[in-house]
Structures are given as structure tokens and as C-alpha cells.
Specification:
This protein has one domain: TIM Barrel (Alpha-Beta Barrel). Helix content is about 35%, strand content about 15%. The protein is built from 12 helices and 12 strands. The strands form 2 sheets. Strands 1, 2, 3, 4, 5, 6, 7, 8, 9 and 12 form a 10-stranded parallel sheet that branches. Strands 10-11 form a two-stranded antiparallel ribbon. Helix 9 runs parallel beside helix 10. The radius of gyration is 19 Å and the shape is globular.
Length: about 325
């Protein structure tokens, strides 16, 4: 096999913690935005070839990690994220829902495990949890962990001490997306700034949890902004163990409804660039997958995506049904992790 020239790939030898171990290693190289843009600009075939080469160095080429995501508390969020139907200020038809009970979450988690999910992710529409919310979440996390599932939560910004409580309860991953590049951030969100997000990620790292952090594309950003997002992610020290790449799901009533859709091949390019720059990360094909054809999804897997959300809903938006995913996996010869 002819290996891609290292001058085209960039530095792909950065050491990174194995998500199955607990040894974090400091990143040894830096990716500039111009270097990442150069990857985006490669001929499509060359980019996919390089991404697949990097992917096979670090992962089983035909294995996909399955996660299930549920909303444990829906609607009523005080933030103004332009993509989110759960913001209280937008009229999207989403009904506010109080926090699910422990028994309700455990029942859903058991069903997810029976369907093949290995990670159970729980989201709540908060700017940040109150202490009483943390107490409830720690009980839920411990119960889900006892089922033999990896646990992940996305609860908003964390206050001092909260990350430690979640970690002690058995939380494996904390999700807190950067969403986009710093330069484009104010076009999407004004109720918090970029540093708020970075501060929460630092709290998660210090508490010993794995970081799940990615972004959303298709929000009207430029390719330079997409490169800027990838640069922010890959230059975290260390870069996230789990990187969800979301394609904007447009919901009527949100400010971003009506935004020109991102070309599907540009989305595939984003997956490939994430794989090359974060070789050991689990790169998740996340929101927006319901709107993608089987062919586009197959290209994303070829480009290095090796995780999906599995089930019929992502928080409040639709997701391909389980049986459809099973059929697609069979067509592609993919196995679940």
C-alpha cells in the first residue's frame, strides 16, 4: 500500500489518551487555521484517502460506537443559541418538560442497551445546573452506570465542584460543544461567551472525566470558520476523546431557520479533517443524520466517523430509526462496538 506523504497529512503522530484508559498525554504539536484550511482545500479523493489512512492507524475500520441520547429535562432554557428549539425566547412548539424521574431514565437506558447502545447520553436544557439538579443527576448517573453502560451528560456550564460530583457518581464523559469558531460565535450566541465554554471544559478535565466536545456546521459560517472550529478542538490539551460533528437541523421559530443548507460533500470534508487532526478521537456523525442519504452517511464513515447516535430522537429532533441503521450497517458491513 502506498502511504500518503507526511507533508500532505501534516503531523499525525500526536500522542493522545486512549478512551479505554486513564492516561492523558499532552498534545505535542499545533495545528494552525491555515494548515487546516489546506486540508479542506485538497482534492476530495486525496482528502478522503488521507483520512481513511489515519483512521486505520488508530481504529478498527469497520466498527461504529453506538450512543443513545435522551433529554432528561426539556425546554425553558434562558440561553439564546440561534439553533436551539429549547430556548425559552423562541416559539418552536417544544413543550417544557420537568426533569425525568430516576425510574424513567433507567427504563430508557435499559432499552437502549438492549438495542445495542454502549454509551448513554443525557441532556438537560439548562444554562447551568443548580445544586439540587446535580444531586438528582448523580443518582441517575450512578443507576445508569450500574447497568454497564458508559455515561455521558450535557448539562450546560458547570460551577466549581460540580464536575467533581458528577465524576464521583460515575460519569465517564461530559459533553460541552464549542459550536463554532470564536470569530463566528457571536453570530450564533450572545448570552455566554467562548471563554465560558472553555472554562467548563477545564473543570471537566480537572475532575478526571473524558471530554465530549465538537460543533455545529451549516449555520451560515465560512469554510475558514469551520477550519477555526477544528483548530480550537484539536489544539485543546489534550484534544477531546469524543468529537460530535453536527449538521444544523433547522427548526422553524429559531433564528437560524432558513439558513442556506451546507453542501453534503462539505460536511463529509469536515468529518475527514476532524479525523486527520484528531486521529485517536471518536468522531461522531451526530445531529442532522436523519436528513442525510445512505450514500452521504457511507462517505462520512469512509472519512473517519466511527460513532453515531442510535435511536429515534436526539433531544427534540428526529434521528434515523434503529431498524434503518441496522439495514445500513448490513449494507456497509459495519459492526457496532
Amino acid at each position: 500500500m502506498n502511504h500518503p506523504p507526511s507533508s500532505q497529512i501534516g503531523n499525525i503522530t500526536k500522542k493522545q489518551p486512549d478512551p479505554r484508559t486513564n492516561t492523558a498525554v499532552t498534545n505535542s504539536s499545533f495545528w494552525s487555521i491555515s494548515q487546516i484550511e489546506a486540508l479542506f482545500d485538497l482534492p476530495f479523493n486525496d482528502l478522503i484517502y488521507q483520512a481513511q489512512f489515519v483512521h486505520r492507524q488508530h481504529h478498527d475500520s469497520n466498527t461504529i460506537q453506538l450512543s443513545t441520547l435522551i433529554s432528561v429535562k426539556t425546554g425553558g432554557c434562558s440561553e439564546d443559541c440561534g439553533y436551539c428549539p429549547q430556548a425559552a425566547r423562541y416559539h418552536t412548539g417544544i413543550e417544557d418538560q420537568d426533569m425525568l424521574s430516576l425510574d424513567e431514565v433507567v427504563t430508557i437506558a435499559k432499552a437502549a442497551k438492549e438495542q445495542g447502545a454502549s454509551r448513554f447520553c443525557m441532556g438537560a436544557a439548562w444554562r447551568g445546573p443548580k445544586q439540587r439538579d446535580i444531586v438528582k443527576m448523580t443518582e441517575i448517573i450512578s443507576a445508569v452506570k450500574a447497568l454497564g453502560l458508559e455515561t455521558c451528560a450535557t448539562l450546560g456550564m458547570l460551577k466549581p465542584g460540580q464536575a467533581e460530583q458528577l465524576s464521583q457518581a460515575g460519569l465517564d464523559y461530559y459533553n460541552h460543544n464549542l459550536d463554532t469558531a470564536p470569530e463566528f460565535y457571536s453570530e450564533v450566541i450572545t448570552t455566554r461567551d467562548y471563554q465560558n465554554r472553555l472554562d467548563t471544559l477545564e473543570k471537566v478535565r480537572r475532575a478526571g472525566m473524558y471530554v465530549c466536545c465538537g460543533g455545529i456546521v451549516g449555520m451560515g459560517e465560512s469554510r475558514n470558520a469551520r477550519a477555526g472550529l477544528i483548530a480550537q478542538l484539536t489544539n485543546l490539551d489534550p484534544y477531546p476523546e469524543s468529537v460530535p460533528i453536527n449538521n444544523l437541523v433547522q427548526v422553524e421559530g429559531t433564528p437560524l431557520y432558513g439558513t442556506e443548507a451546507l453542501d453534503p460533500l462539505e460536511f463529509v470534508r469536515t468529518i475527514a479533517v476532524a479525523r486527520i487532526t484528531m486521529p485517536k478521537a471518536i468522531v461522531r456523525l451526530s445531529a442532522g443524520r436523519r436528513e442525510m442519504s445512505e450514500v452521504v452517511q457511507a462517505l462520512c464513515f469512509l472519512a473517519g466517523a466511527n460513532s453515531i447516535f442510535y435511536g429515534d430522537k436526539l433531544l427534540t429532533t428526529g434521528n434515523p430509526e434503529v431498524e434503518q441503521d441496522k439495514v445500513l450497517f448490513k449494507k456497509l458491513g459495519l459492526q457496532s462496538l
